[in-house]
Write a structure and sequence with these properties.
Blueprint lengths: L31 H15 L1 H4 L5 E5 L5 E5 L7 E5 L6 E3 L12 E4 L5 E9 L2 E11 L2 E3 L7 H11 L7 H4 L2 E9 L5 E9 L6 E8 L4 E3 L2 H9 L16 H25 L2 H26 L7 H19 L9
Parallel strand pairs: 7-9
Antiparallel strand pairs: 1-2, 2-3, 3-4, 5-6, 6-7, 7-8, 9-10, 10-11, 11-12
Helix pairs in contact: 6-8, 7-8
């Protein structure tokens, strides 16, 4: 997991050696300009959003709890990744294009080094962008010359998951978050497109954060052929942890999800509670279907660990969904 620095250092020449005599007023001793500059620098460095007179809204908190996403309002469109433990450490997410709307959905990798953002582009249109932390105060896109969403659509056709690039052809085209692998090595995305909304076709593919390339595996090929609502997980790049560790992870995620679900029910309008409960029943059905599909390709010796990994991954993704605003359907 990415570790945020705990302090911010302001380089000021001879600050340590500056002294004042007893009874003197530093503001009347030629140092008023220094104090003013230091104060202004501290305010704008620690919290540029509030310093600009704009109220920052927290729109997302990562599953680890160590990172949150703040927006500076619709007028500026600025979005910041902020350390929850040290709010002075913040990084502005780059805008892919000034002509595009700002991201309205976020999903952080388990190690908090990657953020997948999604945004509404119009009726039947939804795009995704991927951001990578290059330093505590900077996020970058992996390839500035090839926007993530465009590259994803080209590769979903190239790798055989879909026959047509509906986004490039100007038809309905939507990008959705699938899951992060538990080692943060893979991002799973689902692309859905078609000439008509009622006839959208889905294709799944990975983005490997280590090779910076899109991938297809036997599991994803089978998932793409299934054409079902089964939940999917992202296969980790690294070997799986021990069974006891995976079991403890699942139990912890299960408890967090149950708590988040109860809190969401309590905040939801009574007329919409039935919709939320139906969504949960559908999720459980699709989870069980996805588990069977995933384990069908697993060697017997790995089956239990793979089962725990799958359940942990889809539970983590579901928990991430509950970080969305309470007025949005899940």
């Amino acid at each position: 997991m990415f570790v945020w620095p705990q302090t911010i250092h302001f380089p000021v020449a001879n600050w340590q050696s500056t002294s004042f005599h007893s009874g003197s007023n530093p503001m009347n001793s030629g140092h008023s300009s220094i104090f003013f500059l230091l104060f202004a620098a501290a305010v704008f460095s620690v919290c540029p959003v509030e310093a600009a007179g704009q109220k920052a809204d927290v729109v997302y908190t990562s599953p680890s709890g160590s990172l949150r996403i703040e927006t500076a309002g619709e007028e500026s469109g600025d979005t910041w990744a902020v350390s929850s433990n040290n709010p002075g450490q913040r990084a502005k997410l780059p805008r892919v294009s000034d002509s595009l709307s700002a991201d309205d959905e976020f999903h952080s990798s388990p190690n908090d080094e990657w953020i997948f953002g999604l945004r509404h582009g119009g009726s039947g249109l939804r795009d995704g962008s991927l951001y990578h932390r290059s330093s505590p105060s900077k996020f970058e896109v992996p390839d500035s010359k090839n926007p993530f969403n465009e590259a994803a659509w080209k590769n979903v056709v190239k790798l055989g998951a879909l026959k047509r690039n509906y986004s490039g052809e100007g038809f309905y085209a939507m990008t959705f978050f699938g899951s992060w692998s538990l080692d943060s090595g893979r991002l799973l995305v689902r692309l859905s497109g078609g000439e008509e909304k009622r006839a959208m076709q889905d294709g799944w593919l990975y983005f490997n954060t280590r090779t910076k390339a899109f991938e297809m595996t036997d599991y994803l090929r089978k998932l793409n052929k299934a054409h079902s609502g089964a939940l999917a997980c992202a296969e980790p790049v690294d070997p799986l942890p021990a069974e006891a560790e995976l079991k403890a992870r699942l139990e912890s995620l299960d408890q967090k999800l149950n708590k988040a679900y109860a809190e969401r029910v309590a905040k939801t309008d009574k007329q919409r509670v039935s919709i939320l409960r139906e969504s949960e029943r559908t999720w459980i059905k699709n989870r069980d279907e996805g588990e069977k599909l995933y384990l069908s390709l697993t060697p017997p010796a790995e089956k239990e660990r793979r089962r725990l990994q799958f359940l942990g991954d889809v539970t983590a993704a579901r928990l991430d969904d509950f970080n969305r605003p309470a007025d949005e359907d899940l």
